[in-house]
Specification:
Blueprint lengths: L29 H12 L4 H15 L10 E7 L2 E7 L9 H6 L18 H12 L4 H4 L1 H9 L1 E2 L2 H14 L8 H7 L11 E2 L2 H13 L3 H4 L1 H12 L3
Antiparallel strand pairs: 1-2, 3-4
Helix pairs in contact: 1-2, 2-6, 6-9
């Protein structure tokens, strides 16, 4: 039987154990963890902190997290376990027949065809409504600040950013043009330690904050997404 010890690390890659008495946030990016801690210091609970951290990750780690993604949650609160499946569903107009008619024998990696309706914003809003303590708009403020004011890109994310550029370049089309316009600096991927700002994402997050994410599905953001999708083959 394995017995945990704070002084023994069986793997070559090591991180020392961390202890705290007033809460803790674990995330793959320190700036995102800091966003969660900030919310707890404002009086938020663990669910509030998790939402703030997830939102911040879409800014500081766009290579692995995004507003257009899915979300799953296991929440233990008041001696009960709750599960949330915010897995995106297929768009209403998409069908197997439509995919085959477009010349695909399997689901393509790029373009509108493999895109599902994102579940992530709805998950944030529902978790906040059901379990949160602070107003939902407060939870997205750290992410909005990071996107608006900028953040230093971490080394691992910089490598992943460059990899995404190399992956997308051969398949660039009207659907991917916005990615190149939004996520590059002078036509290249941001380097490790370089400041990156995303004012467009800041505006989107601010809209989500103001509408409880409703705009993403039934409001101004939804209309813009629909218009762009129809104009580019979605």
């Amino acid at each position: 039987m394995f017995e945990f010890s704070a002084h023994e690390y069986p793997y070559a890659s090591q991180r020392q154990s961390v202890f705290a008495k007033r809460g803790m946030v674990a995330a793959s990016q320190p700036l995102a963890a800091e966003a969660g801690i900030e919310i707890m210091r404002r009086g938020g609970n663990a669910i509030d902190a998790a939402i703030a951290t997830a939102a911040a990750l879409t800014v500081v780690e766009p290579t692995g997290c995004g507003i257009g993604g899915d979300a799953f949650a296991l929440v233990w609160t008041q001696d009960k376990l709750h599960g949330l499946n915010a897995n995106g569903v297929a768009p209403q107009a998409l069908s197997i027949e439509a995919v085959k008619a477009a010349g695909h024998e399997q689901m393509p990696l790029h373009g509108w065809t493999p895109v599902t309706v994102p579940g992530c914003p709805s998950a944030w809003a529902e978790l906040s409504r059901r379990f949160g303590r602070l107003p939902f708009a407060d939870l997205l403020q750290p992410a909005i600040s990071l996107a608006r004011d900028g953040f230093p890109v971490s080394p691992v994310v910089a490598l992943q950013w460059q990899s995404a550029l190399e992956n997308f370049t051969p398949s660039r089309n009207t659907v991917l043009d916005s990615w190149f316009d939004t996520y590059l600096i002078d036509g290249r991927a941001p380097r490790a330690g370089e400041m990156f700002r995303n004012p467009a994402q800041a505006r989107t997050l601010a809209e989500l904050a103001a509408t409880g994410c409703e705009s993403f599905y039934r409001g101004a953001l939804a209309q813009r997404l629909d218009q762009h999708s129809r104009a580019t083959g979605g």
